[in-house]
């Protein structure tokens, strides 16, 4: 009977976990970049009176 290759299964699980973390990081950075791209409304407090 063949011996089960647990190291292969463990490696696949680790790779899937790393991929999930990388995707999560990309999603967070994309959301942060989208938030930074939106122009901030100019308030009257910051306006310079001439």
From TrEMBL:
Compositionally biased spans, kind Polar residues: 36-50
Query: According to the UniProt entry, which residue ranges have a biased composition of type Basic and acidic residues?
Result: 8-26
> Highest taxon of the source?
Bacteria
Q: Where is this region: Disordered?
A: 1-50
In Swiss-Prot or TrEMBL terms, this protein is called Uncharacterized protein
Protein's organism: Gallionella capsiferriformans (strain ES-2) (Gallionella ferruginea capsiferriformans (strain ES-2))
């Amino acid at each position: 009977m063949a011996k089960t290759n647990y190291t292969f299964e463990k490696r696949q699980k680790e790779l899937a976990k790393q991929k999930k973390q990388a995707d999560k990081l990309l999603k967070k950075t994309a959301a942060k970049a989208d938030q930074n791209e939106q122009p901030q409304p100019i308030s009257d407090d910051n306006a310079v009176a001439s």
